[in-house]
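Please go through the protein record below and see whether the fold suits the sequence. Record follows.
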Amino acid sequence: MSTSHAVFPKILKIIRIHIIAGGVLAFSLGALLAIANGGTFDSLRFILMYVVMLFGDLSAHYSNDYYDVEIDKHVEQKKFLGGSRLLVYYPELRPLARSISILLLAVSSILAVLIVLFYGAPVEFLVIALAENFAGWFYSAPPMRLTSRGLGEAAVACVTGFAIPGIGYIAVREKFDPLFLYLAVPFVIYGLILSLSLEAPDVEIDRKGGKTNLAVRKGLRIVFLIMLAMAVSATSAFLVYAWQITPAVIDFRAPVLFSIVPLVAALFGFVGVVIQRRKANLYSTLNVASLFIFNMLMIAYLLSVSFS
């Protein structure tokens, strides 16, 4: 058994920093969109709701590593976007990882209830927070195990594209309105691209582990074709908004321009994997990086709109 002073730094390695960073960007994007749309920023409410989202996210990191440990044993080398594989090397830490996941899930859910009861947050916040928490838990955990039922991609898309920016939006605006719901459509599409990009490099490992995600069922070439179609769809949605929705608190021509980044990345992936039949890892990383860039560009634009 690992000594207590050595356990803490090891167990922290399960946390995926790039996923945390993505959550910060998505939450901030939702909050800034609400500010641009006339919301009132309350720092305490903002922090409390972010903690709810963060703890639910962290819980998923630990539960996924716990329940995927047998699959992770088939991984020959750690990938940049992959899990830590820490529980493969230190199986004695598995009970602790599961306990941490449950604790984070419980704290996140209880805090969400308290915010609604004592801080006047709308019930929509509670529904979305609980849905996010349990989607993260049941992504890998039985009996639902969404990733083995062909529902993992939908769960990730809805959490990253709707739930996380949605909580950020409610933290400032306190309600949903048409502006957020319009933008949630391409955001969820980008969430699907994110999910497919994260699973594509591990298709053979997932197949051995019994997962039935889209990459396992359809193969990498279909997955990268779908990601290109999704990127085109997101850009098309922004174009329709720019054409049809006037006036608006934001100029939809800005996200049209920003959407070119993930569109170009998806096109590179299509050419590289589908046409040239290269390995997926590089192009998956490129897709994820392009989504980060899109979010950062949107945040910079919304900052200029909100505080100009």
